Amino acid sequence: MPSEALQGVRVLDLSRILAAPYCAQLLADLGAEVIKVERPGAGDDSRSYGPPFLKDEDGEDTRDAGFYLSCNRNKRGITVDHAKPEGAALLRELAAKCDVVIENFRTGVLAKYGLDFDSLKSINPRLVYCSITGFGQDGPYAARPGYDGVFQAMCGMMSVSGLPDGVPGGGPMKVGVSMVDILTGLYASNAILAALRHRDRTGQGQFIDMALLDCGLASLSHYVQNYLISGVVPERRGNGGFGGIPSQTFRCADRDIFVVASTNKQFGGLMTVLGEPAVACDPRFDQVQRRIENRDALLAILDRLFSSRPAADWLAALEVADVPASLVNDVAMVFDNPQVRHRGMLDHVQHSVAGVVPVLRNPIRMSATPIGSASAPPMLGQDNEAVLREVLGYDHAAIERLRAAGVL
């Protein structure tokens, strides 16, 4: 079962794709009752973002892509056409009985249906309403659409990712995963928890305005702060870091490893492992600041030394020397890692048509309200009757009238 930390909190999730559903999933993992609302017949756009698609127990593709499965566990699923007056009225009824609404429609869209914050707070003043959009609720870009890659480009993330200019493959690079979406989901869930805390103290709900552009820029953290105090635009360093040196990948005789030896003690241990302890005493490299200033000269030495032996040899010696290092794993190799296995990051859920399905586990660990095994992401509309009966008290006849009218 999900954690009981947010037991008693009910969330109406009107969102789709990734950032906002991911936010809602985090709340669901922590014990909130999350009711995911989708379009009848079509559902969340991310259901179609395959292949790969989840296979049923006969090995046939379902209509649910892995993308959808990644951010909708532990939710109840209903279908409502908010464009129909009866559908919008139904959602207002649900919002009146919820603590949180999460939506990611373009600015102003839901106001046409009486589903914006101002409309809903009049019937539920305690409501926490989180709107997640590309550019926020105001400003010259507020009406624009946008997706993760656009925001990685616009916020500067791509400019600091990738190999330097002038080397093969050099140039700005998108982070592989939809990083701005994920970060926005994390920022938004934090904001919602803070707003619930405020609501519980004061009885007052509030509106939360989350923009992917803002979250992407905020995530650049020390890259931006370094620029703000120096005026120097950060350069791309490929797989190299911007802290102490070394902190990057090195090509061994057979494959890549990532090594961080930023403190003087770690650097001394590294150079002893590499058979060149005198380098640690070289006045160009004997302090963190000097290693940063003479980065290129040091990396040339390290590249030569690491290339002489296989990765496994170096990793074994570096572990003894207490120098942080790892193979550069692909996703399949990650689940062979003994620490990942020990921490139980691979979970399994029971799915109504696919049987047992492997999923990622939420990484949060709490002693009093632990997160247990998850429930599978809902099939399209699977909880229509249950939610309307339990939350709104509808009887079978009322539900059938809505279904016949195409509202569900």
Describe this structure in words.
By secondary structure, the chain is of the alpha/beta class. The protein folds into 2 domains: 10-218 and 342-404, Rossmann fold; 247-251 and 256-327, 2-Layer Sandwich (formyl-coa transferase, domain 3), CATH 3.30.1540.10. Helices cover 36% and strands 16% of the residues. It is built from 16 helices and 13 strands. A 6-stranded parallel sheet has the order 5-2-1-6-7-8, with helices on both faces. It has a 3-stranded antiparallel sheet with strand order 9-10-11, covered by helices on one side. The protein has a two-stranded antiparallel ribbon with strand order 3-4. The longest helix has 24 residues, at 179-202. The protein is elongated. The protein starts with 9 loop residues before the first strand and ends with a helix. 36% of the residues are buried.
